[in-house]
Each structure stands twice: as C-alpha cells, then as structure tokens.
Amino acid sequence: MSSSSSSSASPRRRLATALVHAGREPAEQFGFVNTPIYRGSTVLYPTADDLANRRSRYSYGRRGTPTSHALESALTELTGAAGVVLTPSGLSAVSVALLSVARAGDHILVADNVYEPARHVCDTVLTRLGVEIDYFDPLIGAAIAARMRPNTRLIYAEAPGSQTFEMCDIPAFVAAAHARGALAAIDNTWATALGFDGHGFGVDLVVEAGTKYLGGHADVNLGFVSAAPSAWKALKDTHGALGLCAAAEDIFLSLRGLRTLALRLERHQESALKVCDWLAGRPEVSRILNPLLPTDPGHALFKRDYAGGCGLFGVVLKPVPKPAVAAFLDALELFGMGYSWGGYESLVIPFDAAPYRTATRWQPEGPTLRFHIGLDDPADLIDDLTQGFARMAAAA
C-alpha cells in the first residue's frame, strides 16, 4: 500500500469505504474534497542543491503529479497491491504488464478467450522480441500444469472472457505458475477489484481497463496495472522506461468515477440479471453467456471465487438469417451499437470469436450478440428488446 495513502497506518478498509476515502488528501488541497487536475511537464526546484539531489516529491509531469498520485494511491488500497501504474488505455495496461515480465526466449501461456487486441500484442510485439506464445483452453483448470515448460515465464488469463464469457480457474493457474517459479496475470476488467480480489488469490499482475467501469461515463481512456511485491519493481521500471502516462483529465474523471463504483456496479448487475431472466424465456434465444447465472457452466467457479459481477454478457441466438439480426439491431432505440462498455449507457454488438481462436473452436449454434446493460430502467430495455425481436421476426 502506498505510504502516502491516508489510511496507510490503518487496517485495510472495507471496499465501499475505501472507494469514498482512498487517495483523498483534502489538507493538501486547501481543504477541497477532490484532488484537482494538475497539468504540466516542468517541476521547479527551489535551489541548485535540491535539483542536483532531486529533493522534490515530484520531478517531471510524466513521472507523476498530485492528480495521478491520488488515483494510484486509491487503487493501491482498493486492490491490496504493492503498487499501481496508470496507462493511457486498457490495451496499454495489458502491454506494459506483459512487457514487464517477458524476456527473449521466454514461453508465455495465454488463455484462448482473452481480449483480441491483447492477442495481437502477443502475436506481434512479443513474438518479434523472441517470446513464444502458447494459447490454451480457458477451461483447462489444474491441467495447465502439464503445459508448463522450464522457460514458462507467465500464465495470462481473462475471467470471464470479454466476448465468450468462459470462466477460468484462476487459483489453479496461480498454483501452477508459482510451483514452477513463474508469474500469473489476469485481466480483471469484468469483475473489477470489487468482484474479484486478484491479489488476494495470489495473482502477481492484475490489469483493468479504467475506460470501462472505473470511468463509468464513456468519456475516459485509461488503464492500470496493480502488482504484487513479486512483480512491482519490474512493472514500475518498465512503465517508466516506456514513458507511459495517462491524461490528467482522464485521471481526474476516473477518480470521480471511483467514488460511485460500488453503487453503479450493483445497479448494472441487478439490471443485467433482470434482462437475462427475461431473455431466457424468449423463443429467439438459445443460451445466455453469463457466469452470474446458475445455468452457466462457469457459475460454480464464479460462486466460489467472486463477490460480484457487472452488466456485460453474451447471447447466442437460435439460427436466423443475418438480415434478420441486422433488422433487430437497427430497431433498437435504447441500445447503442458501439465498442467498449462499462458506461451508463446500454450497448449491443454482434460478434464472432471464431477467426481468432486457435486452441479451441468457437462454434455457436446461431448468431451471437454481446450486451452491456447500463443504468436504464430494465423494464424499458425489455420493451425495447421486445420490439426489436418483432422486427427480427418480420425480417426472417
């Protein structure tokens, strides 16, 4: 935990309380509750001796400001990590986490259901640097140990996968990695630290796209990586060497979003479950991909390890022509069609994971859609989906 956190000398607080208080130092901001936006590159030193000996809390804008320090401190407390670095996007957080570990000649195991742009980083940047990438079935569980090699450096997973929503057995992956002197990393954007305590389960590096629920209003690009002591120095050094820094306004908005994160996640999850219950009874729906549901294959792992989820899930439709799916999507008035998720707005996109799966096969029985349930009244969303399905039927 950061020594500058207002609670650094106190026991770790409950998450709802930490969300309100973590990272705030009103006494240092003339009594104002929120840390303001500090923009700048140059930091002045009062004397030549101070400059020579770097006697300053801050040295250069890229290396940190009171605004970035406030969010880093808050997230360090929230995640229970040794430290946190901020990045300009969720993908850059994935990249810096992987680069902080990978060395030429290393072997890295990657779950087959991870965020597709993360696969692109692995297949281009890391392979160009001499790192061998090996994709595995996310449902492999403890059998991952048989995939370890003497040069395996990292197991990287995402639970659940952000399109196909398979759950991974993260504790099994951690145990297998640590037994062979390797590290474990996860993308925890779906659950956030409120839903899954990655470091509490022994994960070395936890990635989140702050663009999603941390910002919460579809107006932020930000990522962060929290690290256990086993991975903190390498992460911090790599982050600094790459010159990564998030925008001041995005950091400020993420701090603001942090304060209401628990309330929003509760509403997103509650509304998503209501919509899922309704969808489960629709004749157009074959199955729902959401580990929150008792009918989902990953629910047992979710119930065992997780405290909560969010508003993102997938739906597999029964076979229907593409024009009918397009008619359904075009008819929706409350669901926008766009990438990203985690904001107040409800979204839907069609997806096909088949082209980029290599260790497993994605063969759904019908078209697939990914929904994000925002802060709308779920009854209105259900009404919107009802008229969308009517348009689908008319076009089929």
UniProtKB/TrEMBL annotation:
Lineage: superkingdom: Bacteria
Name of the protein in question: Cystathionine beta-lyase
Swiss-Prot/TrEMBL keywords: Lyase, Pyridoxal phosphate
GO MF term set: cysteine-S-conjugate beta-lyase activity; pyridoxal phosphate binding
Biological process, per Gene Ontology: L-cysteine catabolic process to pyruvate; transsulfuration
Record InterPro entries: Cys/Met-Metab_PyrdxlP-dep_enz, Cys_b_lyase_bac, PyrdxlP-dep_Trfase, PyrdxlP-dep_Trfase_major, PyrdxlP-dep_Trfase_small
EC identifiers of the protein: 4.4.1.8
Needed co-factor(s): pyridoxal 5'-phosphate
Family according to the record: Belongs to the trans-sulfuration enzymes family.
Annotated positions of the N6-(pyridoxal phosphate)lysine modification: 212
Reaction equation(s) it catalyzes: L,L-cystathionine + H2O = L-homocysteine + pyruvate + NH4(+)
Record keyword Lyase present: yes
